[in-house]
Amino acid sequence: MSTDLAIETTGLVKVFGDNRAVDGVDLRVPAGTVYGLLGPNGAGKTTTVKVLATLLRPDGGEARVFGHDVLKDADAVRGRVSLTGQYASVDEDLTGTENLLLLGRLLGHGKPAARDRAAQLLSAFGLSDAADRQVKNYSGGMRRRIDIAASILSTPDLLFLDEPTTGLDPRSRNQVWDIVRAVVAQGTTVLLTTQYLDEADQLASRIAVIDHGRVIAEGTKGELKASVGSGAVHVRLRDAHQRPDAERVLTVALNATVQLDPDPVALTARVNGHGTELGAAEQAASALAELAREGITVDNFSLGQPSLDEVFLALTDRRPDTGTAGTAANAENAETTEKEPAA
Ligand SMILES: Nc1ncnc2c1ncn2[C@@H]1O[C@H](COP(=O)(O)OP(=O)(O)O)[C@@H](O)[C@H]1O
Ligand SMILES: [Mg+2]
């Protein structure tokens, strides 16, 4: 057992009846990093987190947090972790300040220290203006931020962030991402679960893709993307007559299958990243240059990131079956996208 690992699991299993929610998961999470657990609804992310946070007992395998066994040394584990997301201890009827003060006092901070820390966190999380408002009146994004603030009142060694941005609008997502980066900069290890490839890409250094309770791919985000392909180039031509030529040029330039869109001037090609050191954008740029050299006029082009759908297609030959797990787990994470009230 290496002490450089914040989390180490071997063959971890958790069953609910005959549902193997976690079905033999091996994880090695280096300390001091953000580790992404990426998977669709019902994949087993929350169950894994709950076992690691000692909220659920595993049915098989082993799990250690900073070397402490989650069953035998549960107290030691609890002393080093903090959990946010669906279980935050924030009280809806209290204001932002009151919540952080109360939790700070519970953690044993003196009154002035608790007050300072609360003000500091509210300011850092862009909640100063909402400090004296009851949390039940917060938007989804503000609520997520106060949850995270509460969970890092005292800097934990390991922070579980369970789908911290599901349902948030882009601006709130960016704010949460900034917070996660700031938390890691303080030395905290973060286990981040997410359904969004771009989120894992933004934050995590390593990613495990989980599906039906199993890890189906693991690696650095570079490795994962290379195995999946880096995205798709969409090209719109000036002249539909040039499309067969464009198809030929792109096929060679990108070493990929080119798809002809229903629109007669449009083509789509996968940038697969295989056998080249070039990034997706560079590959796309050189393909565009090749089109220009052949006298093919391109009016418009875009390079899209691969989506979780595409990751799953590449890894499993099917799309994630997100719709099927109609469970409490879904309901817990369900939140409609909403606008932040003007501050
Ligand atoms: N408390 C529970 N009782 C019974 N089944 C559960 C419970 N929690 C989760 N499950 C099931 O375990 C599987 C994994 O759920 P979960 O870990 O919540 O997935 P995720 O967090 O990736 O969406 C799902 O099939 C879900 O229905
Ligand atoms: Mg979940």
Describe the structure.
It comes from Streptomyces pratisoli. Keywords: ATP-binding, Nucleotide-binding. This is ATP-binding cassette domain-containing protein. The radius of gyration is 23 Å and the shape is globular. By secondary structure, the protein is of the alpha/beta class. Helix 9 (243-254) packs across helix 10 (280-293). It is 36% helix and 26% strand. The chain has helices at residues 45-52, 74-78, 96-106, 111-124, 140-151, 170-185, 197-203, 221-228, 243-254, 280-293, 308-316, 328-333; strands at 5-16, 19-30, 34-38, 60-65, 68-69, 81-84, 158-162, 189-194, 206-211, 214-220, 231-237, 258-260, 266-271, 298-304. Bound molecules: adenosine-5'-diphosphate (ADP) and magnesium ion. The site of adenosine-5'-diphosphate has 14 residues, from strand 2 and helix 1. Residues 45-46, 162-163, 329, 333 line the site of magnesium ion.
CATH fold name of the largest domain = Rossmann fold
Name of the CATH architecture of the largest domain: 3-Layer(aba) Sandwich
Nearest-integer average pLDDT: 85
Largest sheet: 6 strands, mixed
Strand/helix succession: EEEHEEHEHHHEHEHEEHEHEEHEHH
Domains (count): 2
CATH H level of the largest domain: which superfamily?
A: P-loop containing nucleotide triphosphate hydrolases
Protein name: ATP-binding cassette domain-containing protein
Keywords: ATP-binding, Nucleotide-binding
